[in-house]
Amino acid sequence: MFHSFDSGSERAKMLEAARRRDFPEQFQVDHVQWCDTVRQMLSTDPEDRPTARELLNNEDVRSDSDDNDDDDDDDDDDDGGVVVSLADREVTNQTADCTGLSGRTLCTCNKSCFPKARHI
Length: 120
Hints:
By secondary structure, the protein is mainly alpha-helical.
């Protein structure tokens, strides 16, 4: 969550605080636009959480992602593979059609979408 940890116990304390939606002061100052989004994502009620599509359309997320794209240019896949967004998948009767190839997220389909896609 944009925060470095000096020890495992510090990490545990920070994650527990995040569950309570109690973010570090510096995070709230440095990433004010993310506070509401992260709080929504951590909601215990699934209906209150944003969908992947909503996150991809969120101006703050898009803006932050665009800022980071310049930094990631050196990290491209060696195989020139296509990277597919889960939010752009259409799932019907256990089959997946991965479309919309903008973005650098991972495809979670059954590896039949694109031969060179990076899968998890």
